[in-house]
Amino acid sequence: MILQVVRYYVSYKLSYREIEEIMTERGIHADHSTINRWVIKYAPLLEHQACRRKKPVASSWRMDETYINVKGQWKYYYRAVDKYGKVIDFLLCAQRNEKAARAFFIKAIGHNGLPEKVVIDESGANALALHHINVELWQNGLMLNLIEVLQVKYLNNLVEQSHRKVKGKMHQCLGWKSDEGAKATLAGIELWSMIKNGQLDNPDGLSVWGEFYALAA
Question: Which residues form the DDE domain (predicted)?
Fold first, then answer.
């Protein structure tokens, strides 16, 4: 039941109170504040488990950042998808600068390996972060692994369009009330996207909701 209400929240445009009402109709009492605590506790754990079952992504990435409202303040949500729209990685940061972009790329590379190509927007911070990573690769004798950087607006439409699910949830909940709530919900949204995209190993042919619940096994 806990997994079901967590999935409802991260999968659909439902508020905690709406899910509380749905579960009450089914004879199950789950207070909206309790559901909030479940999402914060379990969504990141499930997303972490999913990373272990995640299939390799393509070596051509599209990276962009978007604005996220947390406690009335705008923060920056870094995301990347591959050329097929598969989720690569994500990171919520307080600032939009080279340090934040670098932190995102280090995280993404750590989870997915080095890309051959990264398409970014006109942000100088993103370009500088990739430049510094390439310098480190060069210094470590990995000249053949240098990342090709492209700043082409139309090629980045894919990742910009994929922000819609995140933006939709933010508008639905009128912005998040805490950093931990935002990070947990974002992890859950990205997890559900990965499952819907067929990005997890699924040898048993489970349904998408079956895959979600199986992560807790």
Answer: 59-198
